[in-house]
Amino acid sequence: MTIPGPRTPAASAVAAPQPPVTAYGTGWQALPTRRPSVRAAWPIAAYLLGYPVWWALGLGGLSVVVLAVPMAVLLWRRRPIRAPKGFGLWALLLTGYLISALTLAETPDGTYGELAAGRVIGYLMRLAVYVSLLIMVLYLGNLTHDELPQRTLVRWLGVLFLTAVGGGLLGVFAPGFAFTSPLEMVLPPAIGGHPFVANLIHPTAAQIQHVLGHAAPRPEAPFEWSNAWGADVSVLVIWFVVGWWTYGGPYRRVVAVLALAAAAVPVVYSLNRGLWIGLGISAAYVMIRGARPLLAGAVAAVAAAAFLLSPLSTIVAQRLDNPQSNGIRAFTVATTIRVAATSPVIGYGNTRTAYGSHRTVTTGRSPWCTECGHPPLGSDGQLWLLMISQGFTGALLYVAFFAGAVRRYWADRTPIGKAGTLVMILVLLYMVVYDGLISALTLYLISFALLWRNATGASDLGEAR
To answer: The whole model's pTM is what?
Structure first.
């Protein structure tokens, strides 16, 4: 599918015969004739390589909204614009979100709160992210492989993994580290003081939570919150292994081993069961679909033995023995489904706050009891967020988009194809436990773009190191 651009005199001329495109290059050109240039891909480089700077400025995941502006300009200049198969589902999801604004002022039964600035701000921020991600995918897919080689993009994702590991270690060893960002300084209190906005613009190393029955830090730097850190790391580690081990030379492989060993510490101290399950699924996937399943199994066995013999195994056991969030999740999910059923087609545009909690039928959080209540409906997973904000229709479109990607790209047996398909599978798992906005959903769609680019052929063109 393409978006046509203006006709030029050359368009009416007889086109020269083009070499046939295969999954690994053109029919008679196995290697590029010139060194690749990634200057056209600078917005993606700015996002992935410059993420610590965005985080320090207070933008973090919101930087994708800022960078979507130059991406849109560059994309428009290179018309006609190609779009991947199945991307119409994402366009429908975005259209449905626009329509859901009609119900922003409604207060469904079992919830409380009136239409206020916070609800509108949250809606507009999510809308800006959805539009920006649409632009980002089209931008990535319309760059040539000379302009942005696949391996270069994968290695940039690996650099962000190293950043996440560094942020995780900071959260473990300096959990109180935090500062006021420049964006936080200039935003008016009415906007910057909103809890959703504050989480995005106030850089902190960790969240202090009572998951184990006592105060314990859960790493979150450089992302929005601890669950976002878990989701992001589980995706980034996949691309890190592909870019720095599978496609890496001796030096990159040494870095890969050291980085993965260091990552084990914040992964365990994150107390993130979703992350642990995701890593287990990834390991099983590699053993089943990997090029060397026996080697993968042996490596996994050695890693498991080392973990069980280390003090980190005690932390995992304590976390599994303290499932304190289960009751909260059960209440919010059940209430979300019940409320969403009252507006199943377009939802309510944003989250809502329910009466009571999993322990009481009285009103939840209040100024005199900030620890009472529970998270807003739709905050326990992207699927539930879509249900409350866009109804069952929005949730179905989201599932269809990523499930369709698994089906469409399953046959791609290249390392990038296998890795991207694994990420799509993890998206379908994480949607019930993680809110994808903002950084996680960005990484999901960059992974989708990698799959699309791989399927367009010439994946070896521009792969010069």
So the answer is: 0.84
Residues sharing a CB contact under 8 Å with residue 42, sequence separation 6 or more, in sequence order? none
Cα-only R_g, the chain: 23
Does some domain include residue 23?
A: no
In a domain, 9, yes or no: no
CB 383 within 8 A of CB 432: yes
300 neighbors 283 (Cβ within 8 angstroms): yes
> Is 464 within a domain?
no
Tell me whether residue 3 is in a domain: no
Give the total number of structural domains in the chain: 1
Containing domain of residue 118, as a range? 36-455
The per-residue pLDDT string of the chain (465 residues; one tens digit each, 9 = 90 and over) reads 555 554 444 443 334 444 444 333 333 333 343 455 678 899 999 999 999 999 999 999 999 999 999 999 999 998 899 999 999 999 999 999 999 999 999 988 888 888 888 888 889 989 999 999 999 999 999 999 999 999 999 999 999 999 999 999 999 999 999 999 999 999 888 777 777 788 888 999 998 876 666 677 889 999 988 889 999 999 999 999 999 999 989 999 999 999 999 998 999 888 888 888 888 889 889 888 866 655 555 556 655 655 555 555 565 555 555 555 556 777 788 888 999 999 999 999 998 888 755 444 444 555 545 555 567 888 788 999 999 999 999 999 999 999 999 999 999 999 999 999 999 999 999 998 888 888 999 999 999 999 999 998 644 433 433
Q: Which of 45, 35, 33, 244 is nearest to 139 (CA)?
A: 45
